[in-house]
Every structure is written in structure tokens, then in C-alpha cells.
Specification:
Layout (H helix, E strand, L loop, with lengths): L1 H7 L2 H10 L5 H13 L3 H13 L6 H14 L2 H13 L6 H13 L3 H10 L5 H13 L3 H13 L6 H14 L2 H15 L5 H13 L3 H10 L5 H14 L2 H14 L4 H13 L3 H13 L8 E6 L2 E6 L8 H17 L16 H9 L2 H12 L6 E5 L5 H13 L4 E4 L4 E5 L2 E2 L6
Parallel strand pairs: 3-4
Antiparallel strand pairs: 1-2, 1-3, 4-5, 5-6
Helix pairs in contact: 1-2, 1-3, 2-3, 3-4, 3-5, 5-6, 5-7, 7-8, 7-9, 8-9, 9-10, 9-11, 10-11, 11-12, 11-13, 12-13, 13-14, 13-15, 15-16, 15-17, 16-17, 17-18, 19-21
The structure holds zinc ion (2 copies).
Length: 433
Amino acid sequence: LVCFYGACGNLDMAYKVFLSIQSKDVVSWNSMIAASVQRGCPDTALELFQAMDAENVKPNEVTLVCALSACAQLGAIDLGRWIHIYINKRGFKLDCYLSTALLYMYAKCGDLERALEVFHSVKRKDVFAWSAMIAGLAMHGHGKAAIDTFYRMQEAGVKPNAVTFINLLSACSHMGLVEEARLFFRQMLPVHGIEPQAQHYSCMVDVLGRAGYFDEVMDLIKMSMPHTAFVWSSLLGACWIHGNVDLAEVAFSRLIELEPRNDGAYVMLSNVYAKSGKWDKVSELRKLMRVSGLKKEQGYSSIEVHGTIHEFVVADNSHPMSTKIYSKLEEIALELKAEGYVPDKNQLLLIVEDEHMKEQALYLHSEKLAIVFGLLSLATSQPIRIMKNLRICGDCHSFAKAISKLYKREILVRDRYRFHRFKDGCCSCMDYW
Ligand SMILES: [Zn+2]
Ligand SMILES: [Zn+2]
């Protein structure tokens, strides 16, 4: 029952049922912890964890792995570290299963060094550990290191699986390693006996599309039957980068056939139109979205400060420190202007007539609010880690670069696709994302 309510998102009911259980065993604790972390209450999860310990119920590997993977999703690195210490203190054996969860948590939370440390400490690494490490390197933009890890995996006699190749190909796509991606993709079936699936095709569409090889992309799409939404949305993304309006319209209509309520498709196509200055098309699309009752997925950014997750939406006023955040933001805006930073108004989806309003709207993006909150709340030695549910926009990207230089702060942003590590005015993605 705890599991059931937890899965339905009814945490209160889950908790009520949980409390009514007379003698709670490790399974009921596990369910409650899992439910809390999945529902974005890592504080509750941590309390439960400690309560469980106090009641002398020993957590098992499942408890730990589940808590770690939830930390990874949330970007809750403080909680993740706490669990790591707990594992050591309680003398849990760091086997492959637990280590993989641990290294993945560190990688997803932005601490790649620690992830590598955990990885190297594993004696006999299985395919999951290797694949997780490749994924970790990929999301941080270390394409070459990811490929290197793949080769070492083979030297160690571990056979790659379908997931390994998804991670490997996305490593190539993050760094634009077209040649390497082509090679790995071609070798999948003949050398490794793995039939390429929809996700592999969409990785390839992504790599080739970003590099502008649209003919090759179309050939590949013809080969990948049946077509999935993945493939078309990758193509749509590539069309946005290259401003390929005609192909974008094709990709859009195919995508909408498969997923009529895909709001991301509308946003992407309107971005393509906006990029080539087709504002009439943009507003047409907006109207279409309104008529069909579609709303753009709400963007939000979160940041963990002293073990608590703070979440911001665009133009957020709900945070207790809002006033401070906005006055700091104004101060920064002036400083940046003096440094010659120009807000990139092309990043605005809405057609705002007034030029001044455009600038205002850009400054309200959730990741900027979260970054400023981080500046105000964290010690200067601590990196500012932001988790964003959507792709970071170009203006917020430039903003983060400028802040990293101006305030000498390291800023990490995990967006829907990858990590951006901003330092001294540069980003680890080399502006390729
Ligand atoms: Zn933005
Ligand atoms: Zn970047």
C-alpha cells in the first residue's frame, strides 16, 4: 500500500499507511524512502533513513541504491554524500551494484572526479559499471575519455550491451565526434552482435544532424523502421541548429503524427522559425498551440543549498529570499552591461514588442534566479550546481559564462541533455550543445 500511494504521488496517504504498520520491516521502510525521494522530498527521505537506523532496522542494498538513484535524479549531492559516508561507516561491501549507483549519483550531481574515484575502486567491473561511467563522462562532455573507457572495457573482456552503445554514441554526439560515431554505429551488429534500435538511430541522427549531414540523416531515417518520436525530435533539434526550415517542417509533422500532444515539438519548430526571423510563422504556431490547448512545459531550475533543494520557475516570487535575489540580479545586470554583455533577445519565444521588456523577460529565467540564489547562499569556494529540466537557453548560457568570470565562481548546470561547467568565462561544452 505504501508503494501504491507513493507511486500515485499521494505521499500523505503513503505516510499514513506507513505509520499504521506495527512492525515495519526493511521492505516497508524502503517503499516509504523511495516514495519520498521520488516525490522530491529528500529531506523526508534522509529523516526516514536516520529513523530507520535509530529503530535498528538495517537498510539493505536496495534501500541504498534506491536512495542514491533518487539523489541522482534530484541532483541532491549532499544527501548522496551522506549516504556514501553511511555506507562506509556501516561496513557495507561496495560491490559492483552499489558502486555503480554511487558513481552514477556523483556523475549526475556534477562531481565527475568523485565518480571516477568510485569507478576505479571497483575490483571487477561489470557491464553496468562500465556503461554508467561512459554515460557519466558523456554527460560532462568528455567524449574522448568516454571512448577510451569503452576500449578499456573491451580489453577487460566485458561485452558491451545496447545501453553501452547508447551512452557511447551520445558521448560522440555531445562533442561532435562524427567519424567515431559512424565507426561505432557500423560495428554494432557485425562486431558486437547488437542490433541498432530506435535510440541508437536517434543518437546518430543527432550526431550527423548537428554536423549538418542532412542527406546522410535522411538515409539513416529511411533505414530505421518503424520511425519513433525520438528520431524526429532529434532531427528537429538539428534543423534548429542549422536553421533548416524545410526539413524542420517535415520532422515536425511526422512527430505530431506520432505524438499529437508533444508541446516540445511546437516549441522547437517555433524556435526554428524565430531563428530565421519568420515571426509570422511563430505567431501562427503560437495560435495553433493555444487553440489545441497545448501549453509549453514549465521550465524550472533547482539548486541544493545545505541539504535543501530550492526550486525556481520563471519570474518566481515565491522564494523567501526573492527580494534579495531580484536586487542582486539588478546589480549584476548593471555590472554585466558595463562589461559589454548584451542580452540575446533572439532567445525569447514570446513576441514582446517593447525592447526593454524583452531584456526584463530574459532576466527572469529560472536558471538565472537559481544562480543568483547560489551566489548569495553558498561559500565562494563551493561550486554552484543547478539542475534544469529543459535545455538551457543561449542567453542563460552566456549569462553563466559571464558570472563565472566576473565573480570567479564555478557554475555547473545540468540541463535535459548534459552538463555545462562554467569557469573563467568559458563552458566545458565549448558552446557546442
Ligand atoms: Zn534562459
Ligand atoms: Zn555549455
